[in-house]
Amino acid sequence: MKISISDRAKRNIEGYLFISPWLIGFVFLSAGPIVFSLFMSGTRWSLLSAPQWIGMENYHTLLFDDPLFYTSLWNTAYYVFFSVPLGMLLSLLLAILLNQRLRGISIFRTIFFLPSVTNMVAVSILWMWIFNPEFGLLNRALEWFGIAGPLWLQSETWSKPALILMSLWGVGGGMIINLAALQGIPEELYEAASLDGAKSWRRLFHITLPMISPALFFNLIMNIIGSFQVFTQALVMTASSGQGSEGGPNNSTLFFVLYLYKKAFQQFKMGYASSLAWVLFIIILLFTLIQFLLSQRWVYYQTDERLK
């Protein structure tokens, strides 16, 4: 049955009407602010006066005259470099452990997933108590083994490792995705490998990891994007750690988004903050593109033979 042009146009109009709430929200709440921030990155604007166009001056200042820009970039890179691999590894190990067919396993899956949906402010307050150098749970546990715990958030050396350790609290989201991918692997592959004499570690590296590589790749991209935008825990935990300012001690936890926040909403340098936002966007975009290029070497997608 042929569909006339008028029928096709009618169906297209109906389709656009159905998705119009999303389109309106995207234009006014996402695309519009993005274009506006690009324009504002070339201005000097304090919210209290009209924007003044200054061209590329903001970018020149942050690249050549702002040492805190590089401090925040280094802190963020340090966090990403350690938190992403550790989070990926832990979420994979948990998914493998929770993929067992045991009675009550769904309860453990729920327990490990719940922290990932907990409000970050509440989680930050909890971990402030855990990291307290005097009566915190972590240092008390180290005392049982005769180890004197560090100052954690009050130490320049341990502040970033503390936040990286805290980030492992939220691996439940990645664990669920890996678990779903594991349960989609056909049992026949493991049975055939066992008949061929393949040991457990060979089945892991030659069946399990290649089969769930798309899920691992998705988790990798999302973890990189999320880690570059680390903000809430640094804001809440360092502002209340007795150091006098967010990002302490001595700017050791001044992450990029936290620095952007301070420029925008404490110093009211909206144009400068917009330029910082676009630098962060370009950095995340480059890392994402690099991962997509590298994924051609290790990500394997299953194809349905019926679609060929």
Please supply descriptive tags for the structure shown above.
about 300 residues; mainly alpha; 2 strands; 2 domains; two-stranded antiparallel sheet; MetI-like fold
Helix content: 55-70%
* Backbone CA Rg: 24 Å
Sheet with the most strands?
Answer: 2 strands, antiparallel
Q: What structural class do helix, strand and pairing data support?
A: mainly alpha
Shape: globular
The CATH architecture of the largest domain: Orthogonal Bundle
Q: N- to C-terminal separation?
A: 25 Å
- The CATH superfamily of the largest domain is known as MetI-like
β-sheet strand percentage: under 5%
Give an overview of the whole structure.
- With 308 residues, this protein is mainly alpha-helical.
- It has two domains: 1-40, no CATH class; 57-307, Orthogonal Bundle (MetI-like fold), CATH 1.10.3720.
- Helices cover 67% and strands 1% of the residues.
- It has 15 helices and two strands.
- It has helices at 5-18, 20-40, 57-64, 67-97, 105-113, 120-130, 137-143, 159-167, 172-183, 187-195, 200-211, 213-228, 232-239, 256-265, 270-298, and strands at 43-44, 52-53.
- The chain has a two-stranded antiparallel sheet with strand order 1-2.
- Strand 1 and strand 2 (52-53) form a beta hairpin.
- Helix 6 crosses helix 13 (232-239).
- The model has no long low-confidence stretch (mean pLDDT 90).
